[in-house]
Amino acid sequence: MQREPHLNNAALFARREAAIPRGVGHSHQIFIDRGENAEIWDVEGQRYIDFAGGIAVLNTGHRHPAVVEAVKAQLDRFTHTCFQVLAYESYVELAERLNAMAPGDFAKKTLFLTTGAEAVENAVKIARSATGRSGVIAFGGGYHGRTLLTMGLTGKVVPYKAGFGPFPSEVFHALFPNALRGVSVDDAMDSIEAIFKNEIEPSRVAAIIIEPVQGEGGFNIAPPELLQRLRALCDQHGILLIADEVQTGAGRTGTWFAVEQSGVAPDLITMAKSLAGGFPLAAVTGRADVMDAPTAGGLGGTYAGSPLACAAALAVIDVFEKENLLQRSRDVGQRLTNGLRAIAAKHHSIGDVRGMGAMVACELFKNGNPQEPDAALTKRIATEAAARKLILLTCGTYGNVIRILVPLTASDALLDEGLAIIAECFDAALAS
Predict the structure, then answer these.
(1) Angle between the 307-322 and 325-346 helix axes, to the nearest 10 degrees?
(2) How many Cα atoms sit within 13 Å of 351 on the Cβ side?
(3) The dihedral of CA 54, 393, 247, 359: what is its sign?
């Protein structure tokens, strides 16, 4: 395909700098022209392997044929009504399917929204309405969004909270277990008890919200024991447990919801990102009696549950079933983990390789010392990878984690090609 000579990354980025505020950050100065499964081509015709997946949005890959077909069929019928004005069956069918898929032996209902932050906000609204309480406990290192309330819930200051305060009141942060930094499950539970003693009595706490695997926080996995003890604590005090599955949901961790692997059934689950295979859609699924607490008109949104996104999401669920993508997630995760551990055996700057299903990361330290996070090396690896045509993302409270969110539909050959590039990046970065 012949391209206009002015369509190059540098020129487009210069236009972006002039037109768009600096607060909209960029991981890479690359402009995409098209994508297919786990590969993209930029405006200069260069091909890249996509290990970012739109930040966990493309579990079924770029432009999965079934998703594209479903959306095209919906385009030929109607694109928007606002569900609260004129309803449509796809919204109802998708709610029914998610209600059946969510853990818990109780009746469930589902609300659709547009973004992950919107889902979290509404989960808190629902919890407050159902309990008549106001307090919310979240966790240090957690990420829940960029709106005012979700910034308050988020346990990381830079860049998400810096300069944007004050934040909503009665939001408290507990410790998240982290063996590398000496924080145990007991420490985490003790920190909640300290909140009860020093900040707010449990009878005024509406909800505890937790990511089963922290996303932006560094792919830190909540031990099953923690989730089980949180469930018991919530039951003891009449507190609702919210699982934020915006990044972990839609099969990324090898089960549709990551929390399933703990045996715990939350009262409310938030999801978004890969739910609709690249189309904006979010959801809150929860106990029917809890979900019904807000009065009629208290929930909703103009674009919430877009018919195009609902059609896409139904196709995504079908693809998972037909292509056995939950097992594929586990297989992809094992392949990535093995590959990263092989690199770690050679480069001791990798202090830890961890993951759940295909949500895999490695954490970098100076001289392998967990007390010395190496954000500079992490950034160098990501930059070097892009130069070698592999898209990687970084994360973590200290900016020292490389995370992989490759589409589950990527071939083994493509995974191996990407891992080989990561190995080359470490060789190059540590040799310089």
Answers:
(1) 80
(2) 20
(3) positive
Q: Is 105 exposed, middle or buried (0-12, 13-18, 19+ CB in 10 A)?
A: exposed
- Residue 406, classed as helix, strand or coil, is coil
Question: CA torsion sign, 404 to 406 to 408 to 410?
Answer: negative
User: Which amino acid is residue 221, in one-letter code?
Assistant: I
- Per residue in 79-114, pLDDT (tens digit) is 999 999 999 999 999 999 999 999 999 999 999 999
Please check whether residue 210 is in contact with residue 230, taking contact to mean a CB–CB distance below 8 angstroms: yes
d(CA 139, CA 130): 22
Distances (CA, A) of 305 to 32, 33, 71: 27, 28, 14
**pTM of the entire structure?**
0.97
Sheet hosting strand 401-404, strand order edge to edge? 350-356, 359-364, 401-404, 393-395
Q: Chain-centre distance of CA 142, in angstroms? A: 11
Domain ranges of the chain: 9-63+324-431, 68-322
348 close to 341: Cβ distance less than 8 angstroms: no
According to CATH, the superfamily of the domain at 9-63+324-431 is Aspartate Aminotransferase, domain 1 (3.90.1150.10)
Cα separation, 242 vs 125, in Å, equals 12
Residue 417 phi/psi, 5-degree rounding, is -65, -45
Q: Which helix (H) or strand (E) holds 13?
A: helix 9-19
Q: pLDDT of 355-401, one tens digit each?
A: 999 999 999 999 889 999 999 999 999 999 999 999 999 999 999 99
309-343 b/e (C-beta count within 10 Å ≥ 16 → b)? bbbbbbbbbebbeeeebbebbbbbbebbbebbeeb
Q: Is 214 left (phi over 0), alpha (psi -120 to 50) or beta?
A: beta
Domain 68-322 has CATH 3.40.640.10: yes
Handedness of CA 87, 88, 90, 96 (dihedral sign): positive
Q: Is the pLDDT of residue 330 over 60?
A: yes
* pLDDT for the residue numbered 26: 85
Of 178, 183, 157, which Cα lies nearest the Cα of 221? 178
How crowded is residue 346: how many other Cβ atoms within 10 Å of its Cβ? Answer: 12
Q: Report the share of the chain in percent with pLDDT over 90.
A: 95
